[in-house]
Design brief:
The strands form three sheets. The chain has a six-stranded mixed β-sheet. With 583 residues, it is α/β, with parallel strands linked by helices.
Length: 583
């Protein structure tokens, strides 16, 4: 874990070294000041030596100024090192997440990743700064003050030593008890973030079903869980304070009592007692600082483990050593493909699938919910890898291609469409960042998106709100199709991506595809038979297996599932939106 986190210090190594160096210099000056003060009392005030008072007083001023400068510089470099460390952590995690396959992403919840990138990194940032400053300063100052105390009076310094041992033992017990609460606390933060995220993303649904009170209750419970665990952890931690205060005052009383007897017996000078009292406060206050450091480190340990889980996660899909860099054509072959999301699952999602699709064909994929239609097409662009068998694109196993090359040639419009904050043109250029405005317009014409874009006040420069909140479901789908077309792919996969458009628009999109991109292999997953009826061939899926392959006419004669779906969809009235439901 330390090795993983240590790699993220990078360019802030110098700042991380300079911080403890200045902290040590500050401690040395602070340790020197009580000795100088004792010297002033013993050899200056009692002896009436003004020259010695001025000399030692000047030395104290210099030591205080050097200590002040060292403390300021330590704070400066510490802040730079800790914020830089946090910046590198966030960047490293975000870059790592970009390499994750769908299988990796399935392992972490969205809310959990957000908590790791925000709360957990902030905890580590604070802990790192305290480690560089307090964790160096406090023990070094404690040791230096203890050594100086033994130099002045070993008998009185023994009181400090006993107090430090007692407080250290109590501190370890308290931290051990508090740790279990902090470990569970961040899991509750995940639940809190998840509740917030779901509520905001589904704000329209919440209002439509009048579920505000339910969501408020759910949020209160998640927030209450965080509160309860936080309070339990803090109750353990604050026990340290009364023990610390009791020890400090006990030490002061014992030192004053023993010191007074030693002064009366001429075993100790007044200046030495003043020095020892100063070291008493120094030692015990540094022990209190050290306890605060332990609290922060205890909290951050849970965060560190969660961050390392992301940084050490190995993507399940990697580039081969010598990848293929050219996809020759859009032909697709499924060769005895079996697929499981979980390798330990008894029943496969896809079971011994064999298919052969020629380049340029339009293939419809039909099947009930849970028939593994989406799982089938996800294997083509290597969003997942097969468990057995092979998927070939352009005559070569998809696992032999460079991932970027393959995914640029296999364009997927997923079931869940996402648009990003920015103009329509900026969203379209996700498909091709160098696309001209004319190329964007042509892609929109093919996707039948131009008709509503041109009605917008700012046309293609219209700003899309986060998640596409200011466009309808059908408009969002057509923009996503246009974006995919800009990649000029050899294979285009539409995963139920025209479900929100009317049948007339759906037909125009299919007609444009047939006329304008005849050489592109088109795979259309649909619930409506009208969307795939005119395809070159239609694949019928059922419980992870291919139940039938053929044209509309062939399947009507030979496939019971297809015939039943067709009859259910065409019996009675025709589709309500066939003349343009959005119009």
């Amino acid at each position: 874990m330390l090795k993983t986190l240590g790699k993220q210090i990078k360019e802030f190594t110098k700042d991380s070294i300079m911080t403890p160096c200045f902290m040590i210099l500050e401690v040395l000056m602070e340790t020197l000041i009580p000795l100088l003060m004792g010297s002033i009392i013993n050899e200056g005030v009692e002896a009436g030596n003004m020259r010695h008072i001025y000399l030692m007083g000047g030395a104290m001023v210099v030591a205080a100024l050097v200590s002040l400068f060292a403390g300021a510089m330590g704070g400066k470099y510490g802040a730079k090192a800790s914020t830089g460390f946090a910046k590198n952590l966030r960047e490293a995690m975000f870059e790592k997440i970009q390499t994750f396959s769908f299988a990796n992403i399935d392992k972490f919840s969205t809310a959990g990743l957000v908590t790791r990138l925000t709360t957990d990194v902030s905890n580590l940032q604070n802990a790192y700064q305290m480690i560089l400053r307090m964790c160096i300063r406090a023990p070094f100052s404690l040791i230096a003050a203890m050594a100086a105390s033994f130099f002045v009076s070993a008998r009185i310094a023994t009181i400090y030593l006993v107090a430090v041992l007692i407080l250290g033992t109590i501190l370890i017990i308290i931290m051990k008890c508090a740790m279990k609460y902090f470990s569970h606390l961040f899991e509750k933060y995940d639940a809190l973030n998840e509740s917030t995220q779901e509520n905001i993303n589904a704000a329209r649904v919440v209002k439509a079903y009048v579920r505000e009170d339910y969501e408020i209750g759910k949020f209160k419970k998640a927030s209450g869980d965080v509160y309860d665990l936080g309070v339990k952890a803090e109750k353990m931690v604050i026990l340290n304070s009364p023990f610390m205060q009791a020890t400090i005052y006990t030490c002061i009383l014992l030192i004053s009592w023993v010191g007074a007897h030693m002064i009366v017996g001429s075993e100790l000078e007044i200046g030495d007692l003043s020095t020892l009292l100063a070291y008493c406060m120094n030692i015990l206050m540094n022990l209190m600082m050290l306890s605060m450091v332990f609290v922060m480190i205890t909290m951050s340990m849970a965060s560190a483990r969660r961050i390392c889980e992301v940084l050490n996660e190995e993507t399940t899909i990697k580039n081969p050593e010598n990848p293929e860099m050219v996809v020759e054509n859009g032909s697709i072959v499924f060769d005895h493909v079996t697929f499981r999301y979980n390798e330990n699952a008894e029943t496969p999602v896809l079971d011994d699938v064999n298919l052969s699709i020629r380049s340029g064909e339009t293939i419809g994929i039909l099947g009930g919910t849970g028939s593994s239609k989406t799982s089938l097409v996800n294997l083509i662009s290597r969003l997942y890898d097969v468990s057995k068998g092979a998927v070939l694109v352009g005559g070569k196993d998809v696992r032999s291609y460079d991932l970027e090359v393959l995914r640029n040639q296999v364009s997927v419009v997923l079931q869940k469409n996402e648009l990003f904050s920015g103009t329509i043109l900026e969203n379209l250029r996700w498909g091709d960042e160098n696309a001209t405005e004319e190329e964007c317009r042509r892609a929109c014409r093919l996707a039948c998106a131009d008709e509503f874009i041109e009605k917008m006040p700012e046309g293609y420069n219209t700003y899309i709100e986060q998640g596409g909140a200011n466009v309808s479901g059908g408009q969002k789908q057509r923009l996503c199709i246009a974006r995919a077309l800009l990649k000029k792919p050899k294979v285009l996969i539409l995963d139920d991506s025209t479900s929100a458009v009317d049948t007339a628009t759906d037909a125009r999109i299919r007609k444009a595809f047939a006329e304008e991109i005849p050489d592109t292999t088109k795979l259309i997953i649909a619930q409506r038979i009208s969307s795939v009826q005119h395809a070159d061939r239609i694949i019928v899926m059922n419980e992870g297996k291919v139940d039938g392959v053929g044209t509309h006419e062939e399947l009507m004669e030979s496939n019971r599932i297809y015939r039943e779906v067709y009859e259910a969809q065409t019996s009675g009235n025709r589709d309500f939106d066939e003349n343009g439901g959005e119009n």
